[in-house]
Specification:
mainly alpha; about 70% helix; about 0% strand; elongated
């Protein structure tokens, strides 16, 4: 019984820490990236397309391994 409670606590703490790190990382990204106006954003989208909504980041593992 005690190990079940410890395991649940571990999972909850791990999730909370992970969410806090993700939030702080996003705050860091937003503070480091310059703001763009509407015209610049249209130019960026026309050159590179719209960003993917599926992932927070692109998986480049295959590029590194190969």
């Amino acid at each position: 019984m005690e190990t079940v409670i410890q395991n649940d606590m571990y999972i909850m703490i791990k999730r909370a820490v992970s969410e806090a790190i993700k939030e702080e990382r996003m705050n860091l990204y937003s503070s480091l990236l310059p703001e763009v106006d509407d015209e610049e954003m249209k130019d960026i989208i026309s050159k590179h397309g719209t960003p993917s909504k599926n992932n927070e980041y692109d998986d480049i593992t295959n590029l590194i391994i190969n």
